[in-house]
Each structure stands twice: as structure tokens, then as C-alpha cells.
Specification:
Elements: H1 10-23, H2 27-48, H3 71-75
Helix pairs in contact: 1-2
Length: 81
Amino acid sequence: MKRTQIQLPDPLYEQIKKVARQLDWSVAELIRRGAEYMVRCYSASAESESNEWKPPDAHSLGDFMVPADKWRELANEPEQQ
């Protein structure tokens, strides 16, 4: 087992202590279990994908509402507020 230090905001630490007390666990046990939960949640999706980041798939937004020959003109218009 590895020993480590972490910094927690005071309000979060107080909430952690309260939950640990309710469960009759130590703060360390609560944090370990929380870390194990996060690893389970994120490693399931990570195992199916490669380690290389790629952007998410695009969603269809429908047909273009402006003809392509007007794009440059609209892109260069000053922003209206």
C-alpha cells in the first residue's frame, strides 16, 4: 500500500468526516473507496477506447440554413448585440 498526501478544501473535508462517521469508517477508508469507485467508473469506458484522445462524434444539426456562397460574407459581419 502506498502512502500519499492530498489537500482538500475545508468544507469538503468536514463533509467527508461526517460521512465517514455515519458509516463508522475512517476518513482514509472513505477516500480509498471513493477512489476505487471512480476508477471502476472510468476504467470501463477507457478499456474499450485507445489511450489517444479524440474529439467526440459530431451530432447532426440539420441542413445548412445559409447557402455556401454567403458563408464568407456572414463570417465577416460585425457581431450584433
